[in-house]
Amino acid sequence: MATAISLQQLAVTFPGRGRQQAVLALQPLDLEIAAARTVGVLGPNGSGKTTLLRVLAGLQPATAGQARVLDRPPGAKDLRRRVAFQPEGPLPLGVLSAAEFLAYVGAELGLPNAESDARARDWLERLDLGHAGRRWLRTFSTGMQKRLALAAVLLGDPEVLLLDEPTAGLDPFGCEVVMQILRERAAAGTTVLMASHQLLEVEELCDEVLVLQDGVMRARGTLAELLATEEHALVVGGLDDAGLRQLESEAHRLGAEGVRIERPRHHLFALFRQLARRRGSGGPS
Amino acid sequence: MLLAWSLQALSRPQLGALAGDGAAAAGSPWLVLPLFVAAIACAVAAVRFWPVFAARADGADWVHRLQRGPWRGCGAAIAAALLAQVVLSLPITTLLARAIGAPGLAHAHVALAGPDVPLLDERGPRMRFDVPPGLTFDEVQLRPIASLPAGPLRTSRLRVLADGESMTDAEVAFEQSQQLVRVRCAARTCHHLDLVLAEGNVPLYFAGDSVVLIAAGGHSTIWNGVALAVIALVPTFVALSIACLCGVAAALATVLTVLASLLFVQTIGEAGPLAGAARGLLRGEWLGAGPHFPACFPFLAAGALAMILTMVSRRNPRR
To answer: What ipTM describes this predicted complex?
Structure first.
C-alpha cells in the first residue's frame, strides 16, 4: 500500500527568547502512514500534536529530519489542494458570510467558480449551515465555525485530511454529522490524520492511534493491538439474582478468575448518537 | 469631518487676526486631522481583517496555507485599504478644504534659489535670483527670516525688480520675521529677479522658499484635492508596510501600536509629506508641480524596503 505520510527523524524545536528556554516540541520521530488510513493523534496538551499537523501542512519548518506528504515536501505548491488542514481556533475573515468564505477558499484552491459554488452549496446543506445566509462568520457559534471549517477543508476534495480537534466545541448532533462525513471520506480512500481529545470518537473512527507525550511517540498501533485484553464479557438477560449467582459459581468451577457481575450501562455518547440518527431519519427527537 | 470644520470655523477669527492673509494655511491642522482619522480607520481595518498582518493571529494558518504569494495577501490588503482611504479622503481634500478656505484656483509655486549666502543687509544690499526660462507669473511672494539689526531698528524697505524693471510703485516693507508680502503684477516672464534694499537696517535672510513665483493660469482646486488625497496615501502605505514587517514576529497588539504610531508621526507629527502638502493646498499651491510629490519618494522607498524585507522574512516563518 502506498505511503501517504512519512517522517524521518523529524524534530521541531522552538528557540527560547530572553529567559525562556527552548522548547522541544517534537523529538526525533519516525512515522509512516499508509494511504487511506485513518489515524488518531492523542496526547495531553502541549504534547506536540498541533506542531506535528502544522509541519505536515507546510506551516512549520522542521528543525531536523524530514517530512514527506504524498511523496512531496509538505510546503510544495501542488499539495495545497491535495492536502487540507483544518487548524484549531476561529476562522479568519470574520466579516464574510459562509458562502463568501467558501468562495474565497475555492478561488485560492483554483476551483472554477461554478464548481466551487456548487460544492459549497452541497456542503453547507449537508452541514446544516444553509440557514446561515449572509450572517458574518464572527457571529457564528463555535460549532457553526467548526462545521464551516470542515466544509472548507473538504471543498477541494483532498487526498489527505489533517484535522486539529475537528469536533471540539460541537454539540453531539453536530459531532455525529462530522463523524459521519469523516467515516465516508475514510471509506472513499482519503487519508485522515486527526488530533483529538475525544477518545470515544477516535476509538470509533480511527484504524490506528499514536500517542504523543512531550514530543515523543509513546505508543502506536491499531486499536486492536492497543486495546487487547485477556478478559471477555458475557451479556445475559432474563436471569434473576439466584440464576446470576449460579452462573458465577459455574464460571469459577470452569477456572475463570476475577469474575464479577455488573449491570451494563450505556454511554451518553451512544444515547445522543441514537437520538441524532432518529432525528436525521425524520423520527421523533 | 464635520467636527474638524466646526472647530476650524470657531478658530478662524483668531487665526485671521494672527496670520492675516495666510489664515487659510494656518487652518491646515484641521485638514490633516480628518485625513489622519480616515487613514487610521482604513489601516486598522485592514490589519484586523487580514490575519497574516500579525503573528499567531486567529485564523492566520488558514490564510498562510491558502495564500502562497510573497506577502500572503498582505499586498492586496494594503491596496484595498489605500483604495478605501482615497474614497474617504476625497470629500475631505475637496469639500472640507474649500470650507476651510482653500482658494478656488491653484497655481504652480516656483521657489527661486538665491545666492550662496542669501542675506540682504546694508553690507550686501542687492540680491539676484535666476528665473526659470519660460515661466509666466503674475505674483511674487516674499517671506524672509528677519534678524536683529546692529543699531536702532529701522524697517527694511525693498524694491523688487524684474529684469531691472520695478514691479511695484512703492517699496515693500518688512518688520517681522516670516512676514508674507505678495507683489502682484500682470502676467509676465523675466530672466532675473532682483531684490534691492532701499532703506532700513533689518537683515533679511532669503533661504529655501522665501522667494516664490506664482505661475499665471490656475488649476481647479478639485484636482488639487485629488492630488492631496493621493499624497495622504503615502503615510498609510509606509505604516502598513512596516506593520506588515513587524507582524512576521510580533502579535496583533504590537502591530497595531506600531501602525498607529507611524501614522501619527507622519501626519499630525508632520514628519511626512502630508502636512506640507495640506498647507500648500490651502495656500492655493498647485501640488502637481511643486516639491510635494518628489518629497514622497523617500517614504515610498522606505515602504517598499519594508515589503521586500517582509517577503524575505516570510521564507523562514517562525511559530
So the answer is: 0.79
Percent of chain B with pLDDT over 70: 91
CA separation for the pair B107, A71 (Å, rounded): 67
DSSP A58: T
User: What's the residue count for chain B?
Assistant: 319
Reported as a single tens digit per residue, the pLDDT across B7-18 is 666 666 565 555
Q: For the whole prediction, is pTM greater than 0.80?
A: no
Most confident of A99-113, A198-212, B302-316: A99-113
Average pLDDT taken over every residue of chain B: 87
- Rounded CA separation A152/A129 (Å): 12
- Residue B155, Cβ density class (10 Å: 0-12 exposed, 13-18 middle, ≥19 buried): middle
B61 to A57: CB separation less than 8 angstroms, yes or no:
yes
Task: List, as one string, the DSSP characters of A174-241.
Answer: HHHHHHHHHHHHHHTT-EEEEE-S-HHHHHHH-SEEEEEETTEEEEEEEHHHHT--S-------S--H
Check A92 against B63: CB less than 8 A apart. Answer: yes
Between CA A16 and CA A25 the distance in angstroms is 12
Residue B105 · residue B284 · CB < 8 Å = yes
User: Which spans in A109-141 are helix H?
Assistant: 113-126
Q: B240 near B81, Cβ under 8 Å? A: yes
What is the helix (H) or strand (E) element at residue A274, kind and residue range?
helix A268-280
Residue A32's region, left for phi above 0, alpha for psi from -120 to 50, else beta, is beta
Element (H, E) at B220: strand B219-220
Q: Within 13 Å and on the Cβ side, how many CA atoms surround B215?
A: 22
Hey, are the CB atoms on B65 and A85 less than 8 Å from each other? yes
Residues 18-57 of B with CB under 8 A from A: 49-51, 57
User: B42 to chain A, minimum CA–CA distance in Å?
Assistant: 15
| Per-residue cell: A239 | 436471569
- Separation of alpha carbons B295 and B274, rounded Å: 10
The pLDDT score that the predictor gives to residue A267 is: 67
Is B59 an interface residue toward A (CB < 8 Å)?
yes
Record: contact B58-A90, CB cut-off 8 A = yes
H helix or E strand, kind and range, residue A105: helix A98-108
